[in-house]
Design goal:
The complex is a heterotrimer of chains A (344), B (446) and C (286). Chain A has 14 helices and 2 strands; from the N terminus they run ααααααααααααββαα. Chain A is mostly helical and 344 residues long. The longest helix of chain B is centred in the middle third of the chain and has 18 residues. Classes of the chains: A mainly alpha (344), B alpha/beta (446), C mainly alpha (286). Chains A and C meet through helix 2, helix 3, helix 6, helix 7 and helix 8 of A and helix 1, helix 4, helix 5, helix 6 and helix 7 of C.
Chain lengths: 344, 446, 286
């Protein structure tokens, strides 16, 4: 046995000992302050030993070590919580523990509660309106930014800028604009955020403002990919701009449209930051004799159910349904793109 | 012991830490881990102190950011006098202070003294509260927080009082005597009179009230609604709060309250009413544009910012037909001593010093503009509204803050909205009563 | 024809300028009002400030404000974003390379899991995530919730999917012959990767850094849940939000805080405009 081998095997064994002992301590309920570091050191020693071990299976070991970091983090932050989340939606989970399995009770309560049903529909309305607004504006901006106008690059940058700033910060800025600046327009002019319908419109405005520049750039990329010779040929044929746009450009970037429409659909549906910072669900409106937050979209509704109202299981149930709806949208997109590919 | 030995052996074997490091560690709290963590980050100044609650400094989590500066100044003087270091950590008003402290507990980073807001939070924290019944200051106050088992656990650091605060100059010009404002009829008459004289008085509206649910729920859902719960009752009479905790309301009383509230809303500036923030509400009144504002003595420190020179006072939100002369005064929150703290005695000494030393009372009353809950104190408030509240305290015309006994978060999650809708005229009086009843019943049921 | 073209170009130019003004107006308002006192904002929120020097007074107030603590938040954000990005770029490249070059049943399953997980919205995992992390912290003594390592760990988990997906597509396009040459020279797999493959990934790393960087820098929900609104560690969005959350809405300070939070990104954008736009667009199309 080579020295290296002995050393690495010793390392692995030491690592295993440390890990096992630390785990033993953990199971015994120790709260020793260094136990966390011991565990990390123990595991690190095992991995290091494995790596240094001269072996015919070195390639496989390296593969394993290369995959480990992301697979581990992915497992712990996404897959396990996801599985637990689905499970918890069938229990009376309190955010810390659960005592019993209650079947579909959470789901039944959820569909019976007015605030959820309302939130579902308002989110749907917002999503559809936002998708339409953003895409129309973005496409028109893209036409402008691909025309022969001077300073195109400046426009692109300017239109794109709002997208880079976080929704939370922008939301507060816009809350200021709606509550303090726009109310200056005339005496007795009430802030848009005090009326349920206008408040929704306000979020739509900010969302379009923030998001259109981004979608615009995708359209720009699409429009630029239309081969120049085809455009030139149509010009030679005497087609005017309108015909070129309708007959050549639009059909050629159909794929871009699909991408943009689904991107805005999914992102509008998941809207949270702006919602939280601009209205936080307010104002309320009366539905069926009960006050209901008129602009509380689903993501915010989930958050508030769990965090503010401390009903974790119910919030988690809403989140599971939220996931299912999004999954349906995404699968539809995959289906449509696949179909298109076949047609082409 | 066996475990410790094992651990010591391990450290020796691995050689990542010297044995001296190990000897120190078994006694260390779980923060040992966090400290190393912080070493790698960008931690500065006070934060390094914050985590060392095993050390000698005592740490206080204060819930009133407004008095942060004054408390820190007092902590300085306390250190000079006694050599005991005190770290003040103030959390802002809108943030979830209870949640923050829960986080500290989970992270093993509990302060020695922490703030709690009332019965709801007492239930959460009672396991962690030191019994303070034998402390000298207990005999000096009737505002200490007494837990369900009769133990004194909450230190009342100050009193606050509220009702409807008036601009005495405007009332005088309108010929209204604030001393008469002790029943609903008197208010109606005064409001009508002032409203008819708006132009002469140079005001925009009679009152400055803010009822937007998102940010002002605490003003409507807690403070104003607090009058429904406590007005006219003995300090220890729990009639309406008990009813509420059973999910019920007294419809007749609530009806009178609704009439009064409606009147308040009708005579308020409409824009501030539905969309104003605390700042807007206060600014409107402080600039002399309304005669009344529904806030309490905590606005004292802000008055100089607006250059307020007019005389002020606080009157009760007397919504009943019969006379009620008192305003709602109580300790807004209490300080508890963490019972697993390493510094229990030092924390207790600090609290006593706050009460019995001149420096302590000066800091709270003169500097922070608050009202002393302690009879031993002869420091008089120097700010106008605090002084005004003190006269109510001295004459015994106070009602308790029963609203702090409401279920946690009820104003924010439920009642605030009902007030907002009522303010926007989307509810009639009957609908308001019904919706309040339903909202309470539903909230209590969950 | 020429006349007409020039004329229509003028119109387009005017439209472009007007739209730019509308889009940039909120930023202008932020800058204007960051340089005003509270009372001045109430009186005239639209006009330019009387004295620009007030901007520095406000900035000083905000930076020194105990509830905001700008520099700490800034460096926390920088540290979290920086370390997360470096690790995502490194680990995702390693993982994607293994997944591309070792076609087995397992590698397919792992890859499909990563791809499928892109559909999972944060909302459905956030609550169990917190409780899982809390359990791990309690059990092992490794503080996962309010620590840098915990949140960076989480960003690796959430950033991994898209990054692996993009890198997977890119690595597939790298000719295998390059690596083969290294193999033949007797290079170990890790050497082959770091000496031959990794340098080739530079252009796609740019995309990955930008996509993840913008998201992590601006992210609010994850740090607010994991670190808490008043924790020892706060990122910029969390600090702004907790600052706004105080009872008294001091717009002068809030807007200054917003201004200070925007500045780093705007400066970055001015210098790396092209790369940022390209990176974000590329990431979306894939």
């Amino acid at each position: 046995m080579s020295k290296k081998k002995v050393f690495s095997i010793a390392e692995i064994i030491l690592g295993i000992i440390i890990t096992v002992v630390t785990l033993y301590l953990n199971f015994m309920g120790s709260d020793h302050s260094m136990r966390g570091w011991f565990l990390i050191v123990g595991l690190a020693l095992i991995l290091l030993g494995l790596y240094m071990l001269p072996s015919e299976r070195h390639n496989q070991i390296v593969n394993f070590l290369f995959l480990l970091p992301l697979v581990l983090t992915f497992l712990v932050t996404v897959l396990i919580p996801f599985a637990l989340g689905v499970f918890y939606s069938f229990t009376d989970w309190t955010g810390v523990s659960y005592t019993e399995f209650i079947g579909f009770d959470n789901y039944i309560e959820m569909f019976r509660s007015q605030d959820y049903v309302y939130s579902f529909f308002i989110t749907l309305i917002f999503t559809i309106l936002n998708m339409i607004f953003v895409n129309i504006i973005a496409f028109l901006l893209a036409l402008l930014a691909t025309s022969k106008v001077k300073g195109r690059n400046f426009y692109r940058a300017a239109f794109f800028l709002p997208n880079l700033i976080g929704g939370i910060v922008l939301g507060y800025v816009w809350q200021f604009i709606f509550n303090k600046v726009l109310t200056e327009i005339g005496p007795g002019y009430m802030s848009m955020l005090t009326d349920p319908n206008l408040a929704l419109l306000a979020i739509l405005i900010v969302s379009a403002w923030q998001y259109a520049g981004y979608i615009m750039m995708i359209y720009v990329t699409g429009l630029q990919s239309v081969p120049r010779d085809i455009l030139e040929a149509s010009e030679v044929d005497g087609a005017n701009k309108w015909t070129t746009l309708m007959k050549i450009k639009l059909p050629m970037i159909a794929n871009t449209f699909t991408v943009c429409i689904f991107l805005t659909l999914v992102n509008s549906f998941k809207q949270f930051d702006l919602n939280l910072a601009i209205t936080n669900g307010a104002p309320s409106r009366i539905v069926g004799g009960k006050p209901i937050m008129s602009t509380e979209f689903m993501a915010l509704n989930i958050y508030k159910t769990a965090i503010a109202k401390n009903r974790y299981a119910l919030g988690q149930t809403k989140a599971v349904v939220f996931f299912i709806l999004l999954a349906i949208v995404s699968l539809t997109q995959v289906y449509i793109s696949k179909k298109k590919e076949v047609e082409m | 012991m066996k475990k410790k030995l094992l651990v010591a052996l391990l450290i020796g074997a691995v050689g990542i830490t010297s044995l001296t490091g190990c000897k120190a560690s078994p006694d260390a709290s779980p923060e040992g881990e966090q400290q190393t963590e912080q070493g790698s980050g960008e931690e500065t100044e006070q934060e390094t102190g914050e985590v060392q609650n095993t050390g000698d400094a005592i740490r206080i989590v204060n819930g009133k950011i407004e008095i942060d500066r004054q408390l820190k100044a007092f902590a300085e003087s306390y250190k000079e006098r006694t050599g005991q270091e005190v770290i003040i950590e103030s959390l802002g008003g809108g943030v979830d202070i209870g949640g923050a402290i829960k986080g500290y507990l989970a992270a093993g980073n509990m302060p020695d003294i922490f703030v709690f807001g009332g019965e709801g939070e007492y239930e959460v924290w009672k396991e962690h509260m030191e019994d303070l019944s034998d402390e000298p200051w207990v005999a000096e106050t009737e505002f200490a927080f007494v837990g369900g088992d009769g133990q004194v656990v909450g230190f009342p650091y100050a009193l606050e009082g509220y009702g409807i605060t008036y601009n005495a100059d405007i009332l005088e010009a309108a010929g209204v005597d604030p001393a008469d404002l002790t029943n609903a009829a008197a208010y109606k008459e005064a409001f009508e009179k002032i409203d008819s004289m708006k132009d002469e008085l140079g005001i925009d509206a009679v009152a400055s009230v803010a009822a937007e649910a998102g940010e002002m729920f605490w003003s409507t859902g807690n403070h104003i609604f607090g009058y429904y719960l406590s007005l006219g009752l003995d300090r220890n009479d729990d009639t309406y709060i008990d009813l509420l905790r059973g999910g019920e309301v007294d419809e007749e009383r609530l009806g009178m309250f609704a009439d009064f509230t409606k009147m308040l809303f009708e005579y308020s500036d409409p824009s501030v009413l539905v969309s104003g923030t605390y700042d807007d509400q206060l600014a409107l009144w402080a600039q002399g544009k309304t005669a009344f504002v529904t806030q309490g003595n905590w606005i004292d420190p802000s008055l100089p910012d607006y250059g307020v020179e007019f005389a002020t006072g606080i009157a009760p939100l007397a919504f009943l037909e019969e006379d009620t002369k008192g305003v709602l005064v109580d300790s807004p929150s209490w300080w508890a001593v963490y019972n697993e703290s390493q510094n229990i005695q030092a924390a207790k000494d600090f609290l006593n010093d706050l009460v019995f030393s001149d420096e302590g009372q000066e800091a709270l009353i003169k500097e922070a503009g608050m009202i002393s809950p302690f009879t031993v104190s002869d420091v008089e408030p120097s700010t106008p509204l605090a002084a005004n509240i003190k006269t109510y305290v001295d004459s015994g015309d106070t009602y308790a803050w029963d609203w702090v006994k409401m279920p946690e978060g009820i104003a924010q999650n439920s009642l605030g909205v009902v007030f907002e809708l009522y303010a926007k005229d989307e509810l009639t009086k009957d609908e308001f009563i019904e919706m309040m009843g339903n909202a309470l019943a539903e909230y209590v049921a969950n | 024809m020429g006349e007409k073209r020039r004329f229509s170009n003028y119109i387009l130019e005017i439209i472009g300028i007007i739209i730019s003004i509308i889009i940039l107006l909120p930023f202008v308002l932020v800058i204007f009002n960051s340089a005003k006192k509270s009372a001045e904002i109430v009186i005239s929120p639209i006009t330019p400030p009387e004295k620009w020097s007030q901007l520095f007074i406000n900035m000083k107030n905000v930076i020194n404000n105990a509830n905001f603590n700008y520099w700490r938040a800034f460096f926390s954000s920088l540290f979290i974003t920086g370390v997360s990005l470096a690790l995502i770029a490194l680990f995702a490249s390693m993982a994607a390379w293994v997944l591309v070059r070792n076609k087995t049943k397992w590698s397919n399953v792992i890859f499909m899991l990563f791809v499928a997980a892109m559909v999972i919205p944060f909302q459905v995992v956030m609550l169990p995530l917190i409780s899982t992390f809390r359990t791990i912290s309690q059990f092992t003594g490794i503080n996962m919730l309010s620590s840098y390592k915990g949140i960076i760990f989480a960003y690796l988990g959430f950033g991994g999917s898209l990054s692996i997906f993009i890198l997977h597509g890119f690595i597939k396009g790298i000719p295998y012959e390059l690596e083969e040459a290294a193999w033949i020279d007797g290079c170990s797999p890790e050497k082959t990767f770091f000496l031959v493959v990794f340098p080739l990934l530079k252009p796609i790393h740019m995309t990955i850094l930008i996509l993840n960087g913008i998201w992590i820098w601006n992210d609010y929900l994850l740090p607010s849940l994991m670190l808490g609104l008043n924790g020892k560690i706060r990122t910029l969005p969390v600090a702004v939000s907790s600052f706004v959350g105080s009872y008294v809405k001091q717009w002068d300070l809030i807007l200054t805080a917003a201004f200070l939070a925007m500045i780093p990104i705007i400066i970055l954008f001015i210098f790396a405009q092209k790369q940022i736009i390209e990176g974000m667009v590329e990431g979306s199309i894939k």
